[in-house]
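For anyone still unconvinced, we reproduce a single protein record, the chain in one-letter code, the fold tokenised, and leave readers to judge:
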Amino acid sequence: MTNPSTFPGGKYAWLLAPAVLISVVDLWTKHLVMADLPLNNGIFVTDFFNLVHVRNMGAAFGFLNDPSTPWAARLFLGATAVAVVVILWIARSARSRAFVLALGLILGGAVGNAVDRARFGAVVDFLDFHYNGMHWPAFNVADIGICVGAGLAALCILFGADGKTPEKQ
């Protein structure tokens, strides 16, 4: 049983607050990019960073980002629905605030990108980092939430704060 004092405001506040924050900031920043920057154009910011407006029909790092795979958006929407259910299922038994927060970050990122897939059949990406002619694939705020959340969840699991109490000997 979860100790209520472990989650001031309730466990689901620790899950939903970061999820809502990430998804709202993600969708707002994407709206700004779409309103001010034509598709497939960019703005030079620094020697290592540009703002761009690109669409990714695929998954992370452009996997399946190919116009000949229109089914990919539906596949990724389905995978996101499954991920949301799994996140909610895992969160109900989690006992660590950090782990629940990590799940919330992942959830918010998943929702932000799912909204794009449902609306456009692709995810709007706009953060473009590069160095010496090499580019990291463009990404967005939702992707940041997913990566930070996954990293935090991994740390929680590695260091024993994965939300489960040890079995009694």
About this structure: DSSP finds four helices and four strands in the chain. The two ends are 18 Å apart (CA to CA).
